[in-house]
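Final report, Chapter 2: Outcomes

The project's central promise was a pipeline that accepts a single protein chain and returns its three-dimensional structure in a standardized token representation, suitable for archiving and comparison. That pipeline is now operational. To close this chapter, we reproduce one record exactly as it appears in the project archive, with the input sequence first and the structure output second.
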Amino acid sequence: MTTSANLEARATHVAVTNDRLIVALTDGREISVPLTWFPRLLNATPQQRAKWRLIGQGEGIHWEDLDEDVSVPRLLGLPCD
């Protein structure tokens, strides 16, 4: 079921550990997913992983050096436009 909270949730902060991508959302939730879902991040250096920026007012996360984009709706299991 898609709710308006899911549609409006946006990233506010990102952390990448050796095995997890952790995304804090505007609604207070925190998503943690395995880094194996994102091979470019998995194989990146800690310095490369730390160099991210929010795109689309928090709808996504971009790593310029890795040419990697992650969609917040997709992390939430929502269809992406």
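Archive annotation: Helices lie at 4-8, 39-42, 46-50, 72-75.
This record, like all others produced under the grant, will remain available to the consortium after the project formally closes.
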